[in-house]
Amino acid sequence: MLINLILYKKKEKENYFLAVGASWPHKNIHSFIKNKKVWSDSYNLIIVCGRTDYAMSLQQMVVDLELKDKVTFLHEVSFNELKILYSKAYALVYPSIDEGFGYTSY
């Protein structure tokens, strides 16, 4: 059997954490943002979310904590763009405090 080694080549990771689906308070992304001392010196944060009141409060929190240069909000991301974001992220941030039955990642 032939294996395409290009598909298995280690991908270079970038210096960002990724939070996907951070549109609701139970996703608890605010607690990660508040703990900026843990991550903001070495990493950035990309948040993929809808345009909800919670997402708007996260954006205001980022401004208040002076993290505008460290946090990026993305909306309406395609599946292919999301795959690229997942593959290049240093780590996935998933601090949810309550989940029903669902898929956390692909």
UniProtKB/TrEMBL annotation:
Entries under Pfam families matching the protein: Glycos_transf_1 (PF00534)
Keywords annotated in UniProt: Transferase
Keyword Magnesium carried by entry: no
InterPro entries attached to this UniProt entry: Glyco_trans_1
GO molecular function, one term: glycosyltransferase activity
UniProt domain Glycosyl transferase family: residue ranges: 9-103
Single GO biological process annotation from the record: lipopolysaccharide biosynthetic process
Coiled-coil stretches noted in the UniProt entry, renumbered to this chain: none
Protein name (record): Glycosyltransferase
